[in-house]
Design goal:
Strand order of the largest sheet: 13-10-12-11-15-16-14-17
Radius of gyration: 21 Å
Length: 354
């Protein structure tokens, strides 16, 4: 593996010296996410393998090119999981891409986001230096914030070599209840239930139907089921997987105008936007296919106290992510210069102006 690391270093130093952009990529399962990639591909898949895994310590460390499917299979053998349910979108997805995109699945509002589970990371910067941040235990806070910073950075700060992630045991029991509710009533109920002592682990509303997942101890799940009512769903595992991997029928719609992801306060009333929508995360994440203008969609999200992302498809020239405020843009630029002074790593993947 040292030869592979040296190969990475040579590519990075050459690119830095000649100001040639590099496109860091693993399985390419999320190539469509973010602004259009630029530069020659720096393929990470050869740098693969699980470096350490101790089930009793609830931590796993792997090289960036390790397939997520391989990691999830190993965890499943030990009745454990990546609790934030990162979407793969393809069998080729890697743990490096998981960290770079920072995406989380249905369980996110109830257990935490991807960055909450990243304990440490090893980074190769624009100088070819190997830097270590964080560690393999929650108590190690040195560099912990940098590890979290790398999560969702789209590879713009450097090449992440190794990643340590916290894992959790699978719940003893799990069931999904279905309720017939309007959009407004579903939002109200999801927030009402979120404030109660219920073992919630997933929620999704679409076309008058609310799915609510309960996970935990058998007694807790049974008591919550009796208390809430609703109809128990069969083959719920498949339904939640379709939601996580966006193979649900909702996501098969025409992407000419793009699939928008709106992040708003969970209590936000139904937004006055035309189109077809789906609501997750207790009301906080809203998917939208709409022919409304990007400015109108972003204004609606901002008025609600949130923001909107052009998640998939559409015209990326408008900017996939909501532009940063001036103070945050300045901080972003300083971080980019500190880690990547020549600006070679995935230029423009986060914001088209950087």
């Amino acid at each position: 593996m040292n030869n592979i690391i040296e190969g990475f270093r040579e590519r990075i130093l050459n690119a830095s010296q000649n100001h040639l952009p590099l496109q860091i990529e693993g399985g390419g399962s999320k190539r469509w996410y973010g602004q259009a990639p630029q530069g020659d591909v720096l393929d990470t898949r050869a740098y693969s393998g699980i470096l350490a895994y101790e089930p009793t310590e609830l931590v796993l460390t792997a090289r960036c090119g390790t397939p997520l499917a391989e990691i999830e299979a190993l965890l499943s053998e030990n009745n454990q999981m990546l609790a934030f349910e990162p979407p793969k979108f393809s069998a080729t997805a890697t743990i490096g891409g998981m960290l770079a995109t920072g995406l989380s699945g249905p369980r996110r509002p109830y257990v935490g986001a991807a960055r909450d589970f990243i304990l440490g990371a090893t980074l190769m910067d624009g100088h070819g230096q190997v830097l270590e941040f964080g560690g393999q235990v929650m108590k190690n806070v040195a560099g912990y914030d940098v590890s979290r910073l790398l999560t969702g950075s789209m590879g713009t700060l450097g090449l992440v070599l190794n990643i340590s992630v916290k894992v959790l045991p699978r719940p003893f029991a799990e069931t999904t209840l279905v309720f017939a509710l309007s959009e407004a009533d579903a939002i109200q109920k999801m927030n009402e239930w979120a404030g109660q002592a219920l073992p919630l682990s997933g929620s999704c509303w679409h076309v008058g139907r609310l799915m609510l997942r309960l996970s935990g101890a058998e007694a807790a799940v049974r008591a919550a089921k009796q208390r809430l009512g609703g109809e128990e769903m069969q083959d719920a595992t498949s339904a939640w997987n379709d939601l996580r991997e966006q193979t649900h029928d909702f996501f098969s719609q025409d992407e000419a105008h793009g699939l928008w992801r709106l992040s708003v306060p969970s209590t936000t009333a139904p937004l006055a936007l035309t189109g077809k929508s789906m609501i997750e995360w207790g009301g906080a994440q809203r998917w939208l296919f709409s022919d409304e203008s990007p400015a109108t969609i972003r204004a609606a999200a901002q008025a609600a106290g949130g923001h909107a992302t052009l998640f998939r498809g559409g015209d990326k020239s408008i900017g996939v992510f909501t532009p940063l405020s001036a103070p945050l843009a300045k901080i972003h630029q300083r971080l980019k210069v500190a880690f990547d002074p020549s600006g070679i790593f995935n230029p423009g993947r986060l914001y088209k102006d950087f």
